[in-house]
Amino acid sequence: MPTKETNGFEVGIYTLADIGPDPLTGKSISTKQRMDEIMDAAKLAEEAGLDIFGVGEHHRLDYAVSSPAVVLSAIAQATKHIKLTSATSVLSTLDPVRLYEDFATLDLISDGRAEILAGRGAFIESFPLFGYSTNDYNELFSEHMDLLLKLNENEIVSWNGKFRSPLNNAEISPRPVQQQLPIWIGVGGTPESAARAGRLGVGMALAILGGDPMRFKPLVDIYRRAGLQAGHSPDKLNIGVTGHVYLAETTEEAKDEFYPYYSNYWNYVNRQRGMGTKMSRDDFEQIASPETALFVGSPEQVVEKILRQHELYGHTRFLAQIDIGGIPFDKVVRNIELLSTNVAPMVKKAIGQNR
């Protein structure tokens, strides 16, 4: 449950650490190189003044990170100020005690910079891997979230559930530097998930990968209404937006550069899900148009999209995924520069002026 007041609007980046072939060369980098680049990106993000760095969890050979806490702990040693979050932790198939203790340890190592963004995950390979059934998909998440919040609130926990052994006056160690770890729930598009996040009083991170931003407004309303009805203070009901971002000096340049990588990304993600469709340039142009939620364009264009969403949602955090589809690291570096020097200051200034 978030315990810190959000001081202004936060901008950061996150990675899911996919290892896709570069569509222009056909070559894939090694897992070792991908990990090195993630470390370098985190250090660059801090040096550039961004607020947050996130790392996702997958259990597949075409992704480099299965343990965000381990990677973030390494990043913690190379940084001093940037907040460190999972993006997301697949809570349905993680033991909540192990997850909490790992991130409490990260919080100690980082001097109070750890956060957990929990979700149900886009893939299901972790279910058989850790001995769970996809038939229990929703029930597992609910039970594990219930326990995770109790662990966050209490040093000694007694608890009983369906899917793991009960806890009887169990000592939960270590305790973090922060009074409680900030916990968020990732929400893709279901009203039930938004209502759950509100009832529990945790942050809601909206995964907005495209389409009309207006279609997510009902989720924001459901979240806030459920939170207030459950007795949570409005200033604790924090909303974040996560999305794909690609920046260049002009919008046309950004679209020309990003299209091969964006199309490539969805081609192999859809293939992993048993679908073989490939995105045409015309489809991409429609997806990247000024009215949509795909953050591709000049800094001014992306700022405009972020501010339009802020008018709709009143969110306090924006996290950009800038390294998908085999994008070479030099382009990732350029995007960090543009995000930190052009986009973030303009967004923060505009939101500050509107308060």
UniProtKB/TrEMBL annotation:
One cellular-component annotation, GO: cytosol
InterPro entries the record matches: Bact_Lucif_Oxidored (IPR050766), Luciferase-like_dom (IPR011251), Luciferase-like_sf (IPR036661)
Pfam families (alphabetical): Bac_luciferase
Residue span, Luciferase-like domain: 10-315
Keywords: Monooxygenase, Oxidoreductase
Highest taxon listed in the record's lineage: Bacteria
Name of the protein: LLM class flavin-dependent oxidoreductase
